[in-house]
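Readers outside the structure-tokenisation community will struggle with the description of the input data as it stands. Showing the layout once, in full, would remove most of the difficulty. For illustration, here is how one protein appears when written out as sequence plus structure tokens:
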Amino acid sequence: MHMPFRFLDNITRADVAVEATARTRGALLAQAGLALATVQVELSSVKNKMTRTFTLQATSEEQLLVRFLSELLYFKDAEHLIFSRLNSRVKTNKHKNSKDTYSATCTAGGARINNNMVLGTDVKGITMHKLRIAKKGNVWTARFVVDV
């Protein structure tokens, strides 16, 4: 069975390293977001009671990943929301006389953090350490580190 994300040992000592895989860039963002949530809460304890939709733009796929994960952390910190269901679409915006840009639209389902959730480790932020996104064949892979 294919695992959409895994936690990596021997990458960092004090933080959490993650590698996510998917067939599309949108699914890759979603899997990375679920990995982030898994560090913070047992996903099965999150009852999907509300949704949020958001759109992000960036000048690189790596920057888009960091912005996406940071947005999920913002919802956790500012609105006390944690998401256990993510659906994302990524678009490459072609520019004739400049570098391409990237945008993502995400619909996230989850709930306010509450006493019924099995909480894990609080994530403080997303780092640039060991950050990468690559496509090999028809599989996208993202590697990132979260600060705990």
About this structure: The chain has one domain: 16-147. Residues 61-79 form the longest helix (19 residues).
